[in-house]
Each structure stands twice: as C-alpha cells, then as structure tokens.
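Before surveying the methods themselves, let us examine one representative protein, written as a sequence plus integers encoding its fold.
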Amino acid sequence: MNIDAEKLNVVHNVDAHRFEIEIDQYLSVLEYEMRGDQIIFYHTEVPPELEGQGIANRMAGAALEYAREKSFKVVPACEFIHVYLRRHPEYKSLVRR
C-alpha cells in the first residue's frame, strides 16, 4: 500500500486521549495523558503493514501543533516522540524543562 502521509486526516479522539489515523481496517495511534498543563505522549503505534510511510510523523506533527495551540508543555515519554522532537527543533520550546 503506497500512502501520501501529508494527505492523511489526523483525528483527535479526545475521549480516548489519542490522535488517530484510520486507513482501511488499520488504526494508527499516538496516545497521551494530561497532567495539568502537561501533555505526556507515551505511546505511538502504526500497524506493521503501514510502517515506514510517514504516518507516525503525521500524527506527531498534528499532536505537537495541538500542544502549541493550547500552550501545553510536552513530555516525550514515548521514544518515537523523543526522536521526532530531536529532528524537528521548531517544537523544542514546547518540551517541559
């Protein structure tokens, strides 16, 4: 399956505390927990059939834009988000110090 990640719609499922992309029967998620003004990103998962196509990057960008919009401090408890933040210094100011 060839996917253009930039065209994918990221859904913020507030009730489930996650950002999602659904493609056919596959669901990719970036899960978080809120603690006051902190958003803790703790798990990112893309089904093996869809890995390597930029889906996790798309969700991470949407999630971090949401954090910026809401003035939340980001806690990157998920290794993927930690690496994404290193590769995207434009979000560095969001990270809790």
